[in-house]
Design goal:
Blueprint: E1 3-4, E2 9-10, E3 15-16, E4 21-22, E5 27-28, E6 32-34, E7 39-40, E8 45-46, E9 49-52, E10 57-58, E11 63-66, E12 79-82, E13 87-88, E14 93-95, E15 104-107, E16 112-113, E17 118-119, E18 124-125, E19 130-131, E20 136-137, E21 142-143, E22 148-149, E23 154-155, E24 160-161, E25 166-167, E26 172-173, E27 181-184, E28 189-193, H1 195-200, H2 205-218, H3 225-235, H4 240-250
């Protein structure tokens, strides 16, 4: 049976798994679905058409499923889908999508969203993402798996951030970030590969060396960028990680990360 504190306000229309825990002064709206093992600490607000996957833990004063901060939003029922086992800390905000966009904001599994981080409307966030304190995503941002976003960093709307990349603290991301890249600064600029992160995630020395060789060629001074991109694709055609960067750069704008749409 769900454990609901007597001071919490839970709409009868909300769908709650049998073992959900809802703490003091929390509010759960009528179109909310909470999967098994979800825990809401005190003063949590879950509204809109919002689904939390199993095992998510939400800390005080987080607001999930609020309407998008978009002047074109007219109160349409759009969605926020959050995958399993995310840790969502204090004052985090995640908004639903817009009718003029995809209509849904999606967050993958096993992420850590630190104090005050924000995910705006129509974003697509992968698995195992870490957003440090105050990190912010504008609308329609797409982030791949295992991205680390430093404190107070911000990604401009429609930006793409590839898998395993590192965004330095206070960085202002106004351009796409290649998979495995490391960016710093305001505005953020590519400094190289996220070598520390790749080693921590267990990438082999052979793979890292291939990525470094491809990176040096891709961002060399000789020839045009298109020529260098084609050279990298030819030389490293059999390397999955290098080709992920090539495909990311060549990507169709309708497929933000050149990855299949995930089901949350």
């Amino acid at each position: 049976m769900s454990q609901i504190h007597p001071t919490a306000i839970v709409d009868p229309g909300a769908k709650l798994a049998a073992d959900v825990e809802i703490g003091p002064f929390s509010i759960v709206g009528p179109d909310v679905t909470l999967a098994t093992g979800v825990r809401l600490m005190s003063h949590v607000v879950i509204e809109g058409v919002t689904t939390l996957g199993e095992g998510c833990v939400v800390h005080p004063f987080a607001n999930l499923g609020g309407p998008p901060q978009h002047l074109g939003h007219k109160g349409e029922k759009t969605q926020l889908l959050i995958g399993p086992r995310n840790i969502i800390r204090e004052h985090v905000t995640m908004h639903t999508g817009t009718a003029s966009g995809k209509g849904v904001t999606t967050v993958g599994s096993d992420g850590l969203y630190m104090v005050g981080s924000h995910i705006a409307h129509d974003c697509m966030v992968g698995d195992h993402v870490v957003m440090a304190k105050g990190a912010t995503l504008g609308g329609h941002v797409a982030i791949g798996d295992f991205v680390f976003m430093g404190g107070l960093a911000a990604a401009h709307q429609f930006s793409r951030i590839g898998r395993y990349s590192f965004i330095g603290g206070l960085a202002a991301v106004t351009k796409d970030v290649i998979p495995y890249g490391s960016v710093w600064g305001n505005h953020a600029h590519l400094e190289g590969l996220n070598l520390v992160g790749l080693k921590r995630r267990g990438f082999s020395r052979e793979t890292i060396n291939a990525l470094r060789a491809a990176y040096r060629l891709l961002f060399a001074d000789e020839g045009t960028f298109q020529e260098r991109l084609d050279d990298v694709a030819e030389i490293h055609a059999g390397n999955v990680e290098v080709m992920e960067i090539v495909d990311f750069i060549r990507c169709d704008s309708n497929r933000p990360l050149c990855l299949p749409e995930r089901e949350v």
